[in-house]
């Protein structure tokens, strides 16, 4: 799933790119497998992929620098609400773009049962999705209509 993110420069944990989380946190089996085959372990040390931490003597692996960061469940890099269309509960287009890209494909149908200002439908339209919007408020119907008509210009 390709979700567009703002580029974030990451390089280890402030320890020069060396980290021990993989070995001692999530995948202790990796270290155990390496220890079973000393030749592989020695080769990884000689290639600079694994080292013993000079202070703790615990094995660490090299974390290569990357320009993107994996998406987690805390989306603090996009705003939650905006007031571009002056609607009280309007969600940001960035947030809905991420949700729609992550959960549908072009040509899919997107449903918003509480459409409000029509942000979901507008973003779905821009991303090549079909959409259904539902709302019973007169202000919501007016806001959706105005927004979608402006989208075509």
Alpha plus pi helix count? 6
Helix-strand topology string: EHHHEEHEHEH
* Biggest sheet layout: 3 strands, antiparallel
Helix-strand category: alpha+beta
Shape: elongated
Uncertain residue segments: 1-15, 22-26
Task: Tell me the β content.
Answer: 5-15%
Helix content: 25-40%
Number of domains: 2
GO biological process, one term: methylation
Keywords: Methyltransferase, S-adenosyl-L-methionine, Transferase
Protein name: DNA methylase N-4/N-6 domain-containing protein
Domain DNA methylase N-4/N-6: 75-142
Question: What does it look like?
Answer:
The chain has 6 helices and 5 strands. The chain is of the alpha+beta class and 153 residues long. It has 2 domains: 70 residues, no CATH class; 59 residues, Rossmann fold (3-Layer(aba) Sandwich). This is DNA methylase N-4/N-6 domain-containing protein.
Task: Quickly describe the structure.
With 153 residues, the chain is of the alpha+beta class. The protein has helices at residues 21-26, 28-36, 38-46, 93-103, 119-126, 138-151, and strands at residues 18-19, 50-52, 59-62, 109-112, 130-133. Residues 1-15 and 22-26 have low confidence and may be disordered.
